[in-house]
């Protein structure tokens, strides 16, 4: 049971980590459409790296954000959190591979492997929290600008990249929790004898005989 939980949690975390990379590379973090006339229609979209405009004819023009310091604070923070999440996920994958019960690494004990798995689970959860914070903050800013009647800029809507980020965060946090839970179940002692179990009756009976008491 513990090995199956570990494998399932590991696969969920790897899938969430890959989905985090896809979300970071996705162009559609915020999307809008603007109809200038009956003939011309332009759609604008942005992510953490660039802003693009695509005409109905299929011609697309993109402009990269040249200066990091010129970006707004929430964009800088979201970009940093997503990169940190990817680095934490990569480190967690390496630790998980070393700590899984189905892998053999020299003379490493089960207790040491369990600690590695638990540490990897915690790092995966931290990675998921970073992704969740980044996409939620970015989405909250989009909603705030969209509902602000005094905002004079272009109003955007939530793009597919944000939904990919939310899905990635859910998978990583769930998988990390399963890894941590697997270690706790594995570390629970199983060979403690219960005084009320049938196996304990002979021992109690012997004790009662030596003490000249009647065993019921």
UniProtKB/TrEMBL annotation:
It is found in: Cell junction, Tight junction; Cell membrane. Its main location: other. It holds the Pfam family PMP22_Claudin. It is a multi-pass membrane protein. GO terms for cellular component: bicellular tight junction; plasma membrane. InterPro entries: Claudin (IPR006187), Claudin_CS (IPR017974), PMP22/EMP/MP20/Claudin (IPR004031). The chain crosses the membrane at residues 80-100, 121-140, 160-183. GO terms for molecular function: structural molecule activity. PROSITE patterns: CLAUDIN (PS01346). Keywords: Cell junction, Cell membrane, Membrane, Tight junction, Transmembrane, Transmembrane helix. Belongs to the claudin family. Claudins function as major constituents of the tight junction complexes that regulate the permeability of epithelia. This is Claudin.
């Amino acid at each position: 049971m513990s090995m199956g939980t570990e494998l399932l949690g590991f696969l969920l975390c790897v899938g969430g980590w890959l989905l985090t990379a896809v979300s970071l590379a996705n162009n559609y973090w915020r999307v809008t459409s603007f109809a200038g006339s009956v003939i011309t229609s332009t759609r604008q979209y942005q992510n953490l790296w660039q802003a693009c405009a695509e005409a109905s004819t299929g011609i697309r023009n993109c402009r990269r954000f040249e200066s990091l310091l010129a970006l707004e604070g929430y964009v800088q923070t979201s970009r940093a959190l997503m990169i940190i999440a990817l680095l934490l996920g990569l480190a967690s994958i390496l630790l998980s591979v070393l700590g899984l019960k189905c892998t053999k690494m020299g003379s490493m004990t089960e207790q040491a492997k369990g600690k590695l798995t638990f540490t990897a689970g915690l790092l995966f959860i931290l990675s998921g929290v970073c992704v969740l914070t980044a996409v939620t903050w970015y989405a909250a800013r989009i909603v705030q600008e969209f509902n602000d009647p005094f905002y004079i800029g272009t109003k955007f809507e939530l793009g597919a990249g944000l939904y990919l980020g939310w899905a990635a965060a859910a998978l990583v946090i769930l998988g990390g929790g399963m890894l941590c839970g697997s270690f706790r179940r594995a570390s629970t002692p199983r060979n403690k004898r219960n005084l009320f179990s049938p196996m304990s009756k002979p021992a109690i009976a012997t004790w009662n005989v030596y003490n000249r008491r009647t065993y019921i």
